[in-house]
Amino acid sequence: MHFSNWEKVGFAVLLAAWVIWGTNKIGNTLVHAHELKENAFKIEGVEKAESGKADKAEAAVPFGQLLASASAEAGAAVFKKCASCHTTEKGGANKVGPNLWGVVGGKLAGHDGFKYSSALSGVGGQWSYENLDKFLASPAAFAKGTKMTFAGLKKGSERANVILYLRQHHDNPPPLP
Ligand code: HEC
Question: Which of 44, 84, 112, 122 ranks highest by number of CB atoms within 10 Å?
Answer without folding.
Answer: 122
